Structure formats: structure tokens, C-alpha cells
Amino acid sequence: MPTKTSTPDLRGKVAVVTGASRGAGRGIAAELGAAGATVYVTGRSMRAQPAPGYAQILALSGLEQLPGSIEDTAEEVGRLGGRGVAVRCDHTREDEVRALFARVQREQGRLDVLVNNAWGGHEAFDGVFEAPFWEHPAHQWEAMFEHGVRNHWLASRCAAPQLVQAGRGLILTTTFWDRGRYLRGNLLYDLAKASMTRLAFGMAQELRPHGVASIALSPGWMRTEFVLLGHKTDEAHWRERPALARTESPRYLGRAVAALAADPQVLARSGDVLRVADLAREYGFTDIDGRQVEAFEL
Q: pLDDT at position 1, please?
């Protein structure tokens, strides 16, 4: 069993968190920063140039512009005690991903943690989650696989040589897992998340001999910006929405990431798919409101 702690120490460690402008990525970057890490915050959303491709979900949410940016997240990392470095990176482009990891090596001389979180599924969201697979539009395949699963594979492929050479490190892949249950009503989402879980497992087999761990990590139902907008509320008032009672903040996931990154025995867990709620009990951390939120189950 891991040693229980609520204050991981990641001073001197270097992490890359992909897709960290908002949501899960921002929560992860924030908690790595609170633990003292240097965090490269990547994504396409900048204050001066929001990411393209989100017109549909913006219209559904009643927004003119996406919430969050890589600069916002990097500044939050700094306020919490770490060092945030904002790097614009389109994770579908191999040249940009390679340049990102070359920059980390050049500037830091090390990489300790890669968190694969960049996800393109929101770009194709049409407001309908549950429907027969033959009724979901075909372009969702590209959003979830070419801009989702491939993003995780590509970043891992570019980071792995540094980690293997160092003989240590951790790759975490954010996914959703409910103990093998089918996510009824959205076959492509189910298939994409299962692919990410299998990706983490397969990488673990090849990385373990080199001292590098690969783990799939599943949060519960997070109160991301889009979830809060969908329920017409915000982080200060979500308790007024009974439908959100089972939700957790993205920082809960971030605390799981920080705990795993600080665990000297993390290699023993390589290849596993882990749930944030289970890790909260093992490591002794809570969500930002002091609760240990139970695992979300279908």
C-alpha cells in the first residue's frame, strides 16, 4: 500500500500536461504546481488566439469564446507554488509535439512526468451523448481518435526516449473506466476511452524494463467549465444543482496525479487502470471541499 500523504513534494520535478487550458488538464497542472513542480502547460487555447474548432459546443453553451487559456493555467501553477510554462502546441501535429519535448529537454535537462490529457472529443459534440451508434455523426470518429487517442500515443512516443534514457519517469493517461462496463449510448466514446486504457497498458509492458511507469487514470464526473455551463451554474453555486451532487472538481484528479508522481513505488502499479476515488483513500487526499468523493459508477 502507498504511504498516505496529503502533501506530495515534487520540487525539482518537471512535468508536461497536455490539453491544460481548462478542465481536467488545468486541475492536474494546478496540483502539480502546488506540489512544487515545474509544469509545461500545453494546448491550443491562448488569450490572444483561442483554439479553433469549438463553434458547435460554444453555441450549445451560449458562449462567444472558450473559457481558459494555457497562460491562465501557467499563472495558476505559479500562484500555487510551482513554475508554469505555457507552450502552444497542437497535439495532432507531430512536428509541434517533437518541438515541445525538445524544448523541455533543452530548458530543463529532464522530464519526470507526462500527463496525456489532450482530447478532441468536445470539438464534435452536438449536444447528444446517448444515441444508437448508427445515429451518431461519422465525424466524431476523427475527433475522438485522430484528435484524442492519437494525441496520447504521439506525445508518449515523443517523450519516451527521454524517460527511457533517464531510467525513470511516469506517463499518466487520463481516461474513463467503469470496471469494463459499456458506456451505453455512445459507442465511439466508449471505444476511444477503452483504447486509451489499452494504450497505457501496452506502453507499460515495453517501458517497465527501463524503469518507466505507464498508468491509466480515471476520474469521476468532473465539474469542468463545460459541465457547469451545461447546468447553468458555476463553481461557487454548483451545490444548488442536485444533479451535480455526485461531481468532483478537476483538482481531485490533480491530487491523484501528484500523489502518484511522488510515490517512489509507482512502478509497481505500471499497467494498471486506477480510479481517483480509490487513490484518495489510499493516499489520504481530499477534493478541494474536503470530501473524499465516491467513485462515479454507471
A: 42
